[in-house]
Amino acid sequence: MISVGNLSLRYGKRVLFEDVNVKFTPGNCYGIIGANGAGKSTFLKILSGEIDPTTGSVSITPGERMSVLKQNHFEFDNFQVLQTVMMGNKKLWQIMEEKDAIYAKADFTDADGERVGELESLFAEMEGWNAESDAAGLLSDLGIKEDIHSKLMSELSGKEKVRVLLAQALFGNPDILLLDEPTNDLDVETITWLENFLADFQNTVIVVSHDRHFLDAVCTHVADIDFGKITLYTGNYSFWYESSQLALRQRADQNKKMEDKRKELQEFIERFSANASKSRQATSRKKLLEKLVVDEIKPSTRKYPGIIFTANRDCGDQILRVEELSKTMEDGTILFKNVSFTIDKGDKVAILSKDHLAITSFFQMIAGEEEAKTGSIVWGQTITRSYLPNENSKYFTADYNLIDWLRQFSAEKDETYIRGFLGKMLFSGEEVFKKSNVLSGGEKVRCMVSRMMLTNANCLLLDEPTNHLDLETIESFNDALKEWKHVAIFSSHDHTFTHSIANRIIELTPAGVIDKRMSYDEYLVDERVKEQRAQNYGLATV
User: Is 167 in contact with 186 (CB distance < 8 Å)?
Assistant: First the structure.
C-alpha cells in the first residue's frame, strides 16, 4: 500500500496541492485525471520520491518495491536492452552485479566466498535464474524482437526505447507500479497487450493517461485532481465521467424530487455494474460498484469547451476523389502507394497507418499544403475544407494577442464576435491578451479549433486533433464530431475517439490501401482485414 498524508506542494504563491490525504491499496488500478496543469505527472513524481512535497509525507508498506516508468530515454544508452529491463528490479540487479564482480576477481578470498554464498541465496530467493528469460519474454510481448535484445539502448529508435522502458517498469512483479502516459508511441496491438497485463496485475497500479479506452480497460478507481485536492472515485473513467455529468444535470433540475434522483443514480450504477461484469476485471469491478453508495457520486466541477462545428452549405454529390496517390521518402522508403478512393456524403473516415509520417504526408496532400508527385486529388465544387494539422508551429510565430491572432482568420473583425469563439474554447477575461507565440501545446490546439469553427466548412480534415488536449477538451471534441452531419477525415491515436466517430476506415500501406466501411473495433478484429494487413505490410502476423 502507498499512502499520502497532509501533502502540500507550493511554488511561490502558486498552490498545486493542499492537505492531500489518500491511500492506494493492492489489487486496484488508479487513473489520475485532471485538467492540463493540475499536477498529474507532478503527483507521480512526488510518489516516486523524485520531487519533495512542501509539507506532508508519502508512506509505503515496509518491504514493498516500487517501479516507475522512466521518461528519460537516454538514461540507459550505455547498457544492453536486456540489461536495461532487468535493472527495473534494482535489488536483484545489484545482487547480480556484486556477484559477477566477485566471481571476476583473480584473488578470491574466504570472505568473498562467504559473501557470494549470501548473494547466491538471495538471488535464488528472488528467482534470479529466471530473470533473463522473464525480461526477454516481456520484450517480445512488447514487440522488441530477439535480435535487438543484446543491442545497446543508444542504437534503438525512440519508439523502441519507449517499449524497453515500459518492459523495465513491468519487470519483476513490482508491488507498486507508477505509469505516466504508458501508451504513448505504442500501436493498438501493444496497447491491448498492456491492457490485459494490467487487468491481471494483482498489485497497486497508479497511472496517468489521456487514453480513455485504456483508462476504462484497466482502472478500478479514478483519482481526480481538482482545486489542489485529490478525490478517489470507484469505477473507471467512463463511469466517473457519465455519473458526474448525470449528477450535474440532476443538480440543475430543481424540481426533481430527491427520491427520484436517488433512484435514477441507483439505476445508473446497476447498469454500469452489469457492463463491468463483461470486463477482464469483472469480479473486482462489479463488487466495487455494487458496494458504491449513491451519495458518493458528485457533480464534476470541470469546465468543458463548447466545440460546435457548423457548415454554411451541405456537401454536393462530388466530394473528394483520390486516384493512384503515392509517397516515397528520399531514402526510398515507401510510405504508401496506389491509394485510390472516393468520399461520399456523411463519411467520417479514420485514416490509419503503421507510420504516422504516411498519415501526415497524406493530410498535407489533400489539404493542398504538399504537392502530390504521383496520382491526383480532386475536390468537388461545393466543398469547403478546414484543416487541423498535426504540426501547427508555423501559425504561432508572431506575437499577436489571441484576439488579434484569431481576427486574422475571420471575415468578421468585431472584437465581441472574436471573443465569442475564444470563449467557447475557455479563453476568457484577461486570457485573451496572452501572446500567441508563448502558448502551451494544448492552448495552441484550442486556438486552432477556434479558427476551424470560424470557417463554417463542410469538410473537416483533422490530423491527430486530440494531441496535447486534456480529457475535458477531448470529450467535447468527441461529442462535436459525433454530432457532425457532414464529412470528416481524421486520424487519432485515441481509441474511443476513433471508434465512436468513424463509419469508414482507410489504412495507408506500402502495398496499397485497405478501405472498409465498418467501425474501428470491427476493423481490428476482422480476420480478412488482419490477413490483408499482414500481406500489405509483408509480415507473418500483425
Answer: no
